[in-house]
Design goal:
The complex is a heterodimer. By secondary structure, chain A is mainly α. Chain A has a single domain, classed as ABC transporter involved in vitamin B12 uptake, BtuC (Orthogonal Bundle), CATH 1.10.3470. Chain A is built from eleven helices and two strands; from the N terminus they run ααααββααααααα. Chain A has a two-stranded antiparallel ribbon with strand order 1-2. Chain A starts with a helix and ends in a 14-residue tail after the last helix. By secondary structure, chain B is α/β, with parallel strands linked by helices. Chain B has two domains: 136 residues, P-loop containing nucleotide triphosphate hydrolases (Rossmann fold, 3-Layer(aba) Sandwich); 68 residues, no CATH class. Helix content of chain B is 39%, strand content 27%. A six-stranded mixed sheet of chain B has the order 6-7-8-3-9-10, with helices on both faces. Chain B starts with a strand and ends with a helix. The mean pLDDT of chain B is 90. Classes of the chains: A mainly alpha, B alpha/beta. Chains A and B meet through helix 6 and helix 7 of A and helix 2 and helix 3 of B.
Chain lengths: 290, 237
């Protein structure tokens, strides 16, 4: 039982990071109908700059702010400079993969291929409750960030005029223009938000992984992509619940059956969801075009 | 009477070959002008060109302001509303959200609420379905929502494309009558593209017959309705 509680706690901690990164993918899908395959490379690039600032200033928080700012700026630059050339979803995917290659090559050249450790602002040793190791203070910090961010994004999309315009621009760009919505600006804003969230997710994930290297975001992207599909690409709530599901599943399968079996567990869950609800667990009923 | 909307020598299309060729017409202030013609005559293309969705040559004047270089999202702020063919209700948003989008640019929060409430009163079935998603509405309700959303913006000129498409005759009659009443009570100016020529002419002040992208006739609605040769040749009744 102790082992189960420990694995559950670890799974939740990993799951919230998956959820955050999946949220980044969902945000771009919602605003442009494109899967951003460059999300991880963009986030890792922002994290390199964040860690450089932390090294310079000695402040984790300065680095965190830089990660968000640089992530957002990269989102703006990639949308304006690259993705606007996409004429259809396929060319969007190809442009995104090209962006990955450029960013990974650049970070490799400038920072080297070796992995570097990342600092944490709080202790990362699990707190022992009743003799059972549970979440660490850092895990609790990550969960708090994820919950706050999810609530903020939900409020933005559900309750504000800006969020309504972003949703409208994604669902019906031409009609939205006729209603006065600046669609191009809404898309850019979607990319900025998504890239900032992605950078934050990778910065939070790096201490728990082997450290930061040009490919550090790749495994996270694969897990988060599975999470986004399981939850429903349109659903922020789906990303959160899907993230927790996958995080706990990976942790339990790793703990009881071995790390090599964990990807198979995710694959089985993905296949099951795609068979039962192809649009994802939290996708709405597919809208009839009117 | 001054023209709320004036179109001068407008040419527009989707590729190399233009669909509209040097079309000129005026929509007088407070009147309903109906665009008539068979499929492919250029009615929808004309409305899309006026809204700025298509590249054009020629001039579009809204209350004497040239809209040529004004993008579509700015034209609504100048007082032009467009209800496209198929209604353009955003299926994934609720009735309330669709209405909020309509009034984004014209009002403060209180004024927007007042205008939204006024539209709920005008189109009562919508008031009962505020939280319903666009795709959950019937065809008639969607048409009401599209109209209400355009009216929340308090436009000077309303472009309306095929409002009768796919609707039962009594719903069409009710929508046409609502439109006429609106023009009479608020002074709204309407450019209405419609295949249901008899229905459109019954509420319009003027009619413009398009054929293969060119104006074939432009005159009082009653006169067009009585012109048997014109009706047989271009309007199909």
């Amino acid at each position: 039982m102790d082992r189960f509680v420990f694995l559950l706690a670890t799974g939740i901690a990993d799951g919230v990071v998956f959820a955050l990164f999946a949220l980044s993918l969902v945000l771009i899908w919602r605003s442009t109908r494109i899967i951003n395959f460059a999300a991880a490379a963009m986030a890792v690039t922002a994290c390199y700059l964040a860690l450089a600032v932390t090294d310079l200033t000695g402040s984790y928080w300065a680095g965190l702010i830089i990660a968000v700012l640089v992530g957002g700026t990269l989102g703006w630059a990639v949308e304006r400079g690259v993705m606007r050339a996409a004429r259809d979803p396929l060319s969007g995917v190809i442009l995104a993969i090209g962006t990955v290659m450029v960013l990974q090559a650049l970070t490799g050249i400038l920072a080297g291929p070796q992995s570097r450790p990342a600092p944490v602002p709080f202790g990362d040793r699990p707190v022992i409750v009743g003799g059972v190791p549970t979440l660490s203070p850092y895990d609790l910090f990550v969960i708090a960030v994820a919950v706050t961010l999810t609530a903020g994004l939900h409020t933005l999309f559900a309750r504000t005029s800006l969020g309504l315009q972003m949703r409208a621009a994604a669902f019906a760009p031409e009609m939205s223009r006729l209603l006065g919505v600046p669609v191009a600006r809404m898309r850019t804003l979607g990319w900025i938000l998504a890239a900032a969230v992605g950078a934050l997710a990778v910065l939070l994930a790096v201490p728990g992984e082997l450290g930061l290297d040009p490919h550090a975001g790749d495994p996270l992207f694969v897990s988060a992509f599975a999470v986004a599909v399981i939850g429903g690409l349109d659903s922020a709530e789906g990303a959160v619940i899907g993230g927790l599901l996958v995080g706990v599943l990976v942790s339990l399968v790793t703990g009881y059956l071995g790390a090599a079996v964990a990807p198979l567990g995710v694959l089985a869950l993905l296949a099951l969801v795609l068979l039962v609800r192809p649009a994802g667990l939290f996708a709405g009923v597919e809208a009839r075009r009117v | 009477m001054t023209a709320a909307l004036e179109i001068r020598r407008l040419t527009a299309g989707y590729g190399a070959e233009p669909v509209l060729r040097e079309v000129s017409l005026q929509v007088p202030d407070g009147q309903v002008v109906t665009l008539l013609g068979a499929n492919g005559a250029g009615k929808t293309t004309l409305l899309r060109a006026v809204s700025g969705l298509l590249p054009t040559t020629g001039t579009v004047l809204l209350r004497e302001q040239d809209l040529s270089d004004v993008p579509p999202e700015q034209r609504v702020r100048r007082g032009l509303a467009h209800v496209p063919e198929g209604r353009g209700v955003i299926a994934e948003l609720t009735v309330e959200e669709n209405l909020r989008l309509g009034g984004l640019w014209r009002h403060g929060r209180t004024a927007l609420r007042e205008r939204t409430d006024a539209e709920y009163q005008r189109f009562e079935p919508l008031a009962r379905r505020r939280k319903a998603l666009g795709h959950q509405l019937s065809g008639g309700e969607r048409q009401m929502l599209a109209l209400a959303r355009a009216l929340v913006a308090a436009p000077d000129v309303l472009l309306l494309d095929e409002p009768s498409l796919g609707l039962a005759p009594q719903v069409v009659h009710s929508i046409m009558q609502t439109l006429r009443d609106l023009c009479d009570s608020t002074g709204l100016t309407v450019l209405l593209a419609e295949q249901n020529a008899a229905g459109a002419l019954s509420i319009a002040d003027r009619g413009v017959v398009l054929h293969l992208g060119e104006v074939r006739s432009d005159g009082p609605a009653a006169q067009i309705a009585q012109d048997e040769a014109l009706r047989h040749a271009y309007l199909g009744y």
